[in-house]
Amino acid sequence: MKTKSLKKVLAISGSTRKNSTNLQLVKAFAAMADGHLEVEIFNELDTLPHFNPDLDDKPPAIIKSFRKKVQQADGVLICSPEYVFSLPGSLKNALEWMVSTTFFSGKPVALITAAARGLKAHESLQLIMKTIEASFTDDTVLLIQGIQGKITPDGEFKDAKAQQQLEKLTTAFTALVQEEK
Ligand SMILES: Cc1cc2nc3c(=O)[nH]c(=O)nc-3n(C[C@H](O)[C@H](O)[C@H](O)COP(=O)(O)O)c2cc1C
After folding, report:
1. Which residue ranges form the domains of the chain, and what is each CATH number?
2. Domain named NADPH-dependent FMN reductase-like: which ranges (predicted)?
């Protein structure tokens, strides 16, 4: 019997911290999507060089590789904290490298902000992704406030509502990814 190949999702953690709660959420998403999506976790934002418009046409190999991961993914999940009322610099940097490409155009995305408060970063992330024409719905965006009290560094949920919200987003995002192309 021919098995249907799974849609590919690149899941980016916006935090560079070893014990990151956002990384744990990304891992929980991958576990929830298991059997429905093929998830590749990207936890290396801190290895990407600073964006420089002069290098946009001939970027370093590591940027070519990052761009290719986005291009080849059927969907991209971004899960990020808020730093000083905005996106962490390393995530903003990665997105700046994507602006001149069309790789996010029409691409299904899920956008999670998990922080102490996170409202401004959540707003900013949605504005950026709208600007680069990514495709998302109200059901594929999620703000989780007070995240440090809701998931442990080992990935155990301490808050049932946060777990349910992530499950709901995973279901909606899987459907969005599967209906594309
Ligand atoms: C430099 C810095 C600035 C921060 N600024 C904010 C902020 O403006 N708003 C907020 O909600 N949380 C802020 N936080 C808290 C983080 O969002 C919170 O610690 C979050 O859990 C970090 O994500 P992580 O666990 O994935 O590393 C800040 C944390 C750091 C380290």
Report:
1. 7-179 (3.40.50.360)
2. 8-139
